[in-house]
Amino acid sequence: WWYIWQFHSELFQQERLLYLLLMLVVLVVGLVKVLSLTENPALSYLAPISFGSMLITILINPQLALAMTIILSLLGGIIVDYSLALTIFYFISGVTAVLMLVKFNRQRDLVRCGFVLMVVNAITAIIINLLFHTTFDYPAVLLAITNGFLSAVLAIGSLPFLEHIFRITSPIRLLELSNPGHPLLRRLQIEAPGTYHHSIMVGNLAEAAAEGIGADTLWVRVGSYYHDIGKIKRPYFFVENQFTQENPHEKLNPTLSTLIITYHVKEGAEIAREHGLPDKLVQIIEQHHGTDLVRYFYK
């Protein structure tokens, strides 16, 4: 907790992430304990340390995942009769999982991570057998390989449930939202094509800026795509959708025009909530217009 307080204090502002972390730690340590109670000591090579490392990397952050990998590896080794060999195995397997998923943004990254883990686990188990055992333990090597496969499969299967339960938006969810075929983006394309084009251009510019300062480019791009979603309620009141049509603001007083222009923010947030978009995305929609005067209608 001291480490989290010192280096990841933002987690205390998002209690659900702390609950997620606690749940994963208890789950992993519990499974290590269960496997250690079996009559076959080789089964401890199935302990899902790398599974926990994967999920913490994806759902929280890689730095915390690396720290928790060290802690879980030590705990795992202590639980299994103070085994140095297993501590080394858990550590190498977990660190490999973290390093493979630092730039995670697609489900296939987890599949690739699983294959790499199978190879790394096999090599690690072989070396450990040669260093720590007088006879070669073939089942341990096979179980180490299985560990890599199962960790990836379990991570892929559990991600959607954990995202939903703990209201976390993973890169996979963001990629789904950025798909032009998403119902809201399809509506924007059809009902407010000018706004859709504007949003895509904003996304390109914002993504380049985010990359330059080291911000989360995927979040910035998705936020740009949806920031003006409220304009689908009254698309022709916005100049980018008027094309050859008459500007309806010419027949309205400035106060009413200002209300219509600014009201798309509130409507956008309502639409986003109705479609179950992430809270962070709703906040982007609510804040994108700022609080300045709409000067155009005061000229």
What this model shows, in words?
With 299 residues, the chain is mainly alpha-helical. It folds into two domains: 166 residues, Arp2/3 complex 21 kDa subunit ARPC3; 126 residues, no CATH class. Helix 9 crosses helix 10 and helix 10 packs antiparallel against helix 11.
Could you give the topology of this structure?
Elements: H1 2-7, H2 15-36, H3 49-59, H4 62-79, H5 84-100, H6 107-132, H7 138-166, H8 171-178, H9 183-191, H10 193-213, H11 217-226, H12 254-274, H13 279-287
Helix pairs in contact: 2-3, 2-4, 3-4, 3-5, 3-7, 4-5, 5-6, 6-7, 8-11, 9-10, 10-11, 12-13
Distance between the termini: 57 Å
Mean pLDDT: 90
Indicate the CATH topology of the largest domain. Answer: Arp2/3 complex 21 kDa subunit ARPC3
Number of helices: 13
Structural category is mainly alpha
Biggest β-sheet, characterized?
none
Query: Helicity level, as a percent range?
Result: 55-70%
Instruction: Report the uncertain regions.
Output: none
The level-1 CATH class of the largest domain: Mainly Alpha
Rg from Cα: 25 Å
Secondary-structure element pattern, one letter each: HHHHHHHHHHHHH
Number of strands: 0
Strand content bin: under 5%
How many structural domains can be distinguished in the coordinates?
A: 2
Approximate shape: elongated
CATH architecture designation of the largest domain? Orthogonal Bundle
Task: Write a concise keyword list for the protein shown above.
299 residues, 2 domains, elongated, Arp2/3 complex 21 kDa subunit ARPC3
